[in-house]
User: What shape does this take?
Amino acid sequence: MEQLKAEIERKRKEQPTAAAAGRNKYMKRGEVERLAAAEAAAAASREKAADAAPVAVAAAPSASAAALNTLSNTSTLTSTANTSTANTSTEKRIPEADLAARFRARGVPIRLFGETHADRMARLTALESSEERSDGGQNDYRALLARADARLAETLLKGGGGGGGAAAQAKAALEAQLAAVDTRAISQRLLDRDPEKTRILIAIYFKKILLVWERTLNETDADSKDKRFALATREQTAEYMKPFFVQLKQGSLENDVVARVTEICKHMQDREYLKANDAYLRLSIGNAPWPIGVTMVGIHERSGREKISSSHVAHGLNDETQRKWIQSIKRMMTFAQSIYPPDDLGKAIG
Assistant: This one.
């Protein structure tokens, strides 16, 4: 009995010691396995250290010499690098006011938490590089407006007048050369007989319209309020028409598209702008009752079901490049009506 009481007392004394040591009375199997793996790893590391100790002692003199050489070389390189970075940082350091203004212009925070001046310069460089990569789709008209402003400023500095330069003379010569070509032969009959000649005449006619448009804008008053927008619109139209001219030269346009463009050119030269606008609508959205591409309107067959098949749906505006030059043709149609008005208002659009 006395022995049992002594054993119980000993167990009671061991419990606070185990609790103070951070051990529980019961352990999970995962904890036991983790402890066993830790003990095995520690034993393996001790054995590896014991094996590598003689080799390390033998190689100590050569290693120390190599370490001294490496340390001297790295110190020289780091000092050179530090001086070079210090020079470049002092040379390319952006003033605080300029840095804040450029951040504000982009609508981003001027300073982030814990950010140094070098970090802010790096963030600004990344922002500007990303803007340069994404510049093109939505900012092209803004760039054209800036170019138009530069042209207007140059015209004002030269004292008005549009163009005594070599570029203006070359454009005037090109316009005279294109004007000598008779494009009134453009018709559906010529397209059926000689498609290549028709495509060449279409390209000449639209290039002639672009040159007349530019000359008309240059001859207007430089102080005109809407001249900068007109110049930017004309530049954008000329840029959008370049793929169209390439496709005409290569003959890669579809026959029905060339037929609609031929019809537009013929009506524009006849000053039948209302008919030209109808041809433009057939080119852009077609005369299908479902121009957006709906081909199934129910589960039952109805009369006229064949009219909304895929072959009758216009897909002219699905391509972004094609949409741009179709829109440019409409702009040139509007300009031609303002320069060459019809004799009857019933033939005009708008």
Remarks:
- Residues 43 and 200 are 88 Å apart (CA to CA).
- DSSP finds 13 helices and no strands in the chain.
- The chain has a mean pLDDT of 75.
- The radius of gyration is 40 Å.
